[in-house]
Amino acid sequence: MGPRLVFPAGEVPEIPAARLASTANEREPLLFWVHTGRAELQISGRTRSVTAGAAIWVPAGVAYSIRVDPGAVAFPIPLPAADLPPALNRVIDFEIPADWQDWLVHQFAHNLGFLRGETAAGAGLIELVAGVHSDRDDNSPSYSPPRLPRSAETLEIARTLLRTPSDDTELSRFAQQLKIGVRTLQRRFIEETGLSFVRWRTSARIAAATSYLAAGREIGWTGSQVGFATPAGFTRAFREHTGMTPTDYASANRRPTPPREDETLAQGVALLSEEGARSGSAPAPPTIPASGTWARVNDFHVVVWIYRGSARVTFGDRTWNLRRGDAMWLPAGVRNSVEIAEGSLLLPLGSQPGASPVTAPPPRVLHFAREAQAYLLHTVVANYTHLRPEIHDPARIARLIRSAAAAPLPSGDQADPVETILAALRKNPADSRTLPDWSARLGVDEDMLLKDFVAATGQSFPRWRGQLRMTLARAYLEEGLAAGETARRLGYAHASGFTKVFIAAHGMSPRDYQRRGWRGAPEGLIDP
Question: What is the span of the domain harbouring residue 513?
Answer without folding.
Answer: 417-520
